[in-house]
Fold these 4 entries.
Entry 1:
Amino acid sequence: MFNNMDREPGDQILQVEGLTKVVNGEVYFKDVSFMVNKGDKIALLGPTNLVTTAFYDIITGRDKDFSGEFKWGVTITPADMPIDNSEYFEGNNENLIDWLRNYTTKPDADEQFLRGFLGKMLFSGEEVLKKVSVLSGGRKDALHVLKDDASRS
């Protein structure tokens, strides 16, 4: 998760109250409550990957089928890096500049503006004209981070 880089994070990062998740009658977790404050260090552990993934999917907004509630601090802009980001790249023959343009708040963004974003993840020169479909998994992860950054600019 990333905070809004334009503001210093406030004291409250995340508040979770009574979060419960049941899948096909199996209770993954029940009545989970906690508060994450600025400066806290946390780890998410569970008995299986299914449980931790279910929790993560709830707080990232991908899963709406749960009880309880959670609330991000007012200075926090949630973002995440999915385990599988292939849906953003499969069958896509765009170059990096055109691909990133799809996610900016400036659809008429010029090439120099987009190259600036790509430069943050060390994409430079002619590399920005590569097709996204030929990038390695790590380079696709880097693009995914830029996508979220560009969508807020």
Entry 2:
Amino acid sequence: MNSTACTPNPVASTSALAEENAWLREQVKHLQHQLDWFKKQLFGPKSEKRVYDPAEQGELFQPADAP
């Protein structure tokens, strides 16, 4: 029996693991970016809460007509 056929090549497996590690790190960065965006959308400031009152817009009621 040849014992070298059963033993994986440590150099080849090291480079494969390094490639996989780099790919997984990129995936983590991408997913972290997505998570940050979703958190901002869910918990960030909302445009509905902002007060927007332009000076050129007139009043709905005149002071005499106001309840």
Entry 3:
Amino acid sequence: MYDYVPEPDLSQLRVIFNRARHDAGLTYDQLAARSGLSRQTLINLSQGRHYGDLQTWLRLSATFEVGLDDLLSPVWPDEER
């Protein structure tokens, strides 16, 4: 297995969020209404000012209809996947 726990690249969260939102074709207002997250939280995620917490990403994965593991897999370095 691993001799160490790899560090996730949290800067990828902004990229993941923006890609998923654009792929879903949702505005911030539409995504806020569907996910129950505030528009400001979504904008902060989009701009990398906030990483969100587990509840945030669980809501987003449900809204985007994708598993949490699949949604967040890009935070792990390629050699660790």
Entry 4:
Amino acid sequence: MRSLLILLFCCIPCLGFPLQASAQMRHVGRTWLFGVGKSALYDSYLSPLDYRGPSLSISMTNERTARWGKGRVDSYARWAIVGTMAENAVGNADFYDGTVDFSLGWHYRWSFPRHWTLRAGALAELSFGGTYSSRNGNNPAQGRAALDVAASVMADYDFRLLSRLFSLRLQADAPVVGMMFSPQYGQSYYEIFSLHHYDRNLRPTYPGNVPSLRFAALLAFPIRQARLVAGYQADIRQSDVNQLRRHAWQHAFIVGFRRQLHF
């Protein structure tokens, strides 16, 4: 717990500054995305079997040019909710899974000839959720909570087609270092929260034990005052902590809209 609090308090002062600075900006780009896809779930705490099923997601991103950084730095904020209902191959048990993510950080921007723009930066990401198994009796659910610092890169390409301006974006985010809550192998939540039998339930994470990646390819095109957005997103989450393994692989078609707001 002490390590998680130290990491959280180190992130909060850094995250608060760009929000205060960017609140004075006049132009804010917001993107709403809705996703439909399929997920593959595995959680060794709940079951030795793989579960597969449909998933739904909704997310919103807020991007603006920071006042600091001489116009070369963009602040970035995102939240997302993902829900999945999956069943095992036999069809006699279901997983109900939900995840909520919050991301906040900055990107440094480089502009190149031929309409290319590259961005690279870091994000602080807070994620929590849980999985419920319809088959288990003693331990029917598994909770999750994690705080990460992630590397983030984006590439934008603007081009004209039929006299309209299109924009293609590729984005990838991957956690680099952080903290994760996890029970030990064979440890129940009753032992942790009722009996207070803690056993290294907050563990440091890095790409070696949490090899995860979120990748998106989005195409935006103008419709009146807004820009419609459509594309593909892969959200690959994996962990091997406290002798417990989990993966949640989601592939989704996403569609939404992007707008520029003026203050």
